[in-house]
């Protein structure tokens, strides 16, 4: 629960402030185009921090890293409360988001350590829902707080929630990293390996009993996977970059990032349009409006996973009936069988962008633009459901390293679009800008066609760079 609450608070902090842009524009005397940086840069920090926190956790342990990052987040929140200029506020939000980004990388790993395969999917679903709730429900919470108490009180609420979570994590969040012994030397025979294991077990059984729970919580020595600690940090840092040579990992990064860009861009520019005539929405009303994106995720979530699995099972069953008796059972399953599920976001998400643009430009009902917002948000469950399950299927030993690269890359893509998005919309108009962004989304999703058709060749090529590659 601490991990889920942390990812909720971090995304609440990063995304929620957009509903207070009208008040911030008055207090700091800046344009809305400038204010989008208060969302874009934290998104960048959330992503890039994955590349720092994950290798650090492998060296010193996950519990110390989570607790340290929580203190960084609290320091950033406190700075945000006291910020007296736009630059101060921007810097504080970058610091806090850099701290909060740790849980996006470490959360799935901690959950995998704590839960068996039977309950892992349920725990991950709760984690994913907490992440989405923070970024999509967060603006609604922030809207009511900012509308009633002012934007500084939004950071007070985040600081209080973060402090409570830190204290409970100190007491109840265990270290979940365990070193496991594997027979890595292929030159020894089975008897020697078995004898070595038995000696190790006997030594472990003769050791003193484990320390009690409370003493274990305050010990931070020798908790990482690397025996030499931070000396191994450069090597751990470099591991995710192997996946830059894996086409499906690059596709997942760009696709996830470009659809996240649509959500973040709508969130960043909506206050500018909705607080002005003819809508005249308050901060709290804008917060309620942004809830439509969460509804799109909630509706798409129970469809995306089952649809992806259904397609994979159907293809495997069909292939099993058409293969010869000499074909092994492993050949009936192919990770690429999940890819056709991407036709759903192809048909729904980019049209949602276009519909949103026309609804705002022609001052149509808020229900129309809210529906379009939900259509765009639905892609956030379909794209990762397909791409990440594919990667973990093909690269089970090193897939977590790919997740680090994808988490960092998607936020970098979203940052690039969002930081220039307000100027883009102001220069070309919302209709033209959103048509162009929708076209990019269509082109990116179309790249899945060659990946599907040449899947075997692509995986053979990628296998040269990724250790632990397996074939089907």
Automatic annotation (TrEMBL):
Keyword set includes Plastid: no
UniProt cross-references to InterPro entries, sorted A to Z: MFS (IPR011701), MFS_dom (IPR020846), MFS_trans_sf (IPR036259)
Keyword Ion transport attached: no
Domain Major facilitator superfamily (MFS) profile: 1-472
Domain of life: Eukaryota
GO cellular component: plasma membrane
Places the protein is found: Membrane
Location (main, coarse): membrane
UniProt name for this protein: MFS transporter
Native source species: Aspergillus vadensis (strain CBS 113365 / IMI 142717 / IBT 24658)
Lineage of source species: Eukaryota, Fungi, Dikarya, Ascomycota, Pezizomycotina
